[in-house]
Design brief:
It is a single chain. This protein is an alpha/beta fold and about 325 residues long. The protein folds into 3 domains: about 90 residues, Diphthamide synthesis DPH1/DPH2 domain 1 (Rossmann fold, 3-Layer(aba) Sandwich), CATH 3.40.50; about 110 residues, Diphthamide synthesis DPH1/DPH2 domain 2 (Rossmann fold, 3-Layer(aba) Sandwich); about 100 residues, Rossmann fold, CATH 3.40.50. Helix content is about 35%, strand content about 20%. The protein is flat and about 60 Å long. About 40% of the residues are buried.
Length: about 325
């Protein structure tokens, strides 16, 4: 069962009286976006559904207001600890589970810990779309297992992680991470950032599994990209155009650093960093993108090595003859 915070939508409409709205969200909930658009149209509010997926609260797509003249953007499914950024209104979207489901998931975790003889404190984390289930699950597990309170990051919900922010999980006494949700993407990030074994708790399939092997594959691929980029004489530094991904200072810093080693750098600005666009720059030897640390990890098809900002810092270490280890160790990747 799914739930969208329609009460918040109605409140925004009543208070702000928008005539035109743009609706954005991740690819996986297109039907939800269409339903929302249909409801708004029935209320006399013109709606545009974004055909470009929003990858998070850093991908606001404000440029679409300039094109359409819309009053507001409803960003669905990327709830964080703040409700508004400029003309963007975050609208909560949740996968809902009844008490019977939550009890089954709690028992599943308890049995998994017992069967696999996991000794030590655990951390439980999630993403915003499972937040209601997360809070219920915490209550069910209280007194049954030693769960450590997550750290609180200023703009995140309790226990929430993003694809590039794992601050909640940086609790020294935790030995094992459990991630509530089906997203391998986020669970691998948890494992790499904290270097603690992480288990996905899939509430739909009612299964638990370790992501250690998948995380190790990502790490090996990262080391390979860094090694290949080490011989580059010309590097393209890609700056993202998306509102939360414009990192000019980082790009300028990298350009200065690599020029110290006699490497030519070229600044490239790009909205969607995809192979079809990057591969056109055939005369460059490698690329670094400062927009999102997950792009090199999750997008295939780049013909030349493409590094994230953490990987670029590792490459600088390599140039300085400093030992390189996991470039993704750390709470925050941006």
């Amino acid at each position: 069962m799914i739930w969208l915070d329609w009460q918040r939508v109605e409140k925004i409409i009543k208070e702000e009286k928008p005539k035109t709205v743009i609706i954005v969200g991740p690819d996986g909930i297109i039907d939800v976006l269409l339903d929302l658009g249909e409801k708004l149209e029935s209320m006399g509010i013109k709606s545009y559904i974004s055909g470009d997926p929003s990858y998070g609260s850093c991908d606001l797509q404000i440029n679409k207001i300039n094109v359409t003249g819309a009053d507001l953007i409803f960003n669905v499914g990327h709830t964080i600890g703040i409700e508004n950024i400029g003309n963007v209104r975050f609208i909560d979207f949740q996968y809902m589970f009844n008490d019977e489901d939550i009890n089954k998931i709690a028992d599943l975790i308890m049995n998994y810990i017992t069967d696999n003889k996991l000794i030590g404190k655990i951390g439980l984390y999630t993403i915003s779309n499972y937040y209601f289930a997360y809070l219920k699950l915490l209550e069910k597990l209280k007194g049954r297992v030693d769960i450590v309170e997550p750290r609180k990051y200023e703009t995140l919900l309790q226990g929430q992680v993003l694809g590039c922010n794992f601050y909640s999980a940086f609790v020294p006494e935790v030995k094992f991470n459990f991630f509530l949700g089906e997203s391998l993407f986020h669970a691998i990030g948890l494992q790499l950032s904290s270097e603690k074994e992480t288990f996905i708790v899939d509430p739909h399939m009612k299964i638990i599994y370790s992501v250690r092997n998948e995380a190790n594959k990502y790490l090996r691929a990262s080391f390979a990209r860094i090694a290949m980029a080490n011989s580059a004489e010309k590097i393209g530094i890609i700056i993202g155009e998306k509102e939360g991904q414009v990192n000019l200072q980082k790009a300028n810093f990298l350009s200065r650093e690599f020029r110290k080693f006699g490497i030519k750098t070229f600044n490239i600005i790009m909205n969607e960093i995809i192979p079809e666009k990057v591969n056109k720059f055939q005369n460059l030897d490698a690329f670094i993108e400062t927009a999102c640390p997950r792009i090199p990890m999750n997008v295939e098809g780049f013909k030349k090595p493409l590094l994230s900002y953490p990987e670029a810092l590792a490459l600088i270490k390599l140039k300085k003859k400093i030992p390189v280890d996991n470039p993704y160790r750390g709470a925050i990747w941006f």
